Amino acid sequence: MKKKSVIYCSFTLLIILHCTIATAQRPLDAVTQSFNDYNKNNLQEKLFVHTGKSFYMTGEILWFKVYATDASLNQPLDLSKLCYLELLNKEHKPVLQAKIAMTDGSGNGSFQLPYSVNSGNYMLRAYTNWMKNAGADLFFEKNITIVNALRKPDWHGADVPVDYDVQFFSDGGNLVNDL
Q1: So where are the chain's domains?
Q2: Distances in Å between the alpha carbon of 23 and those of 12, 27, 28, 34?
Q3: Is 81 helix (H, G, I), strand (E, B) or coil?
Q4: Of the candidates 45, 125, 137, 42, the residue with the CA atom closest to the CA atom of residue 88
Q5: Beta carbons of 140 and 126 less than 8 angstroms apart
Q6: What is the distance, to the nearest Å, from the Cα of residue 157 to the centroid of all Cα atoms in its chain?
């Protein structure tokens, strides 16, 4: 009789445990399904731009490759067929602009850096029309340094004369008479 009650209790416990696990799995499945539905309805595109380097001289070619991904899953995305690239100066005004054709979520191109560009830090910015819906905060941005060896640097305040004060001191800290 004892053996039957142990088997009965074990069987009952097993059924209760199975029901608990099955009901605990349902909310997790519902959350996963809700997340997937949200991603399908609110697709967000993200761009990555790969350049050969981040320091260029004027006259060089800035080669780049653009990759489009799904922002939530970071998987390749073939949504937009056109990407816009801009090279912005320190006032955030475009110096160079290009439209890049996107095929299977990627595209490539180049900028010939003209000698009319001043030396300085520039920002390479990439976006698609779809990305404009979410605002400029999600655009891809990368800092690029360009040096123009043919132009004098544009130093602010270079016309102001500077008075230099030069003093010589001994290394040991002790002054030597008549020296």
Answers
A1: 1-30, 45-147
A2: 17, 7, 9, 17
A3: coil
A4: 125
A5: yes
A6: 35
CATH match of 45-147 with 2.60.40.1930: yes
- Per-residue pLDDT of 31-87, as tens digits, reads 777 777 776 677 788 899 999 999 999 999 999 999 998 877 778 888 889 999 999
Cα angle, residue 82 at apex, residues 78 and 87 outer, rounded to 5°: 125
Do the Cβ atoms of 100 and 109 come closer than 8 Å?
A: yes
Kind and range of the H or E run holding 88 = strand 82-88
Dihedral of the alpha carbons of 12, 13, 14, 15, in degrees to the nearest 10: 50
Backbone phi and psi for residue 121, each to the nearest 5 degrees, phi listed first: -95, 130
What b/e sequence results for 108-131 when a residue is b if at least 16 CB atoms lie within 10 Å of its CB, and e otherwise?
eeebebeeebbbeebbbbbbbeeb
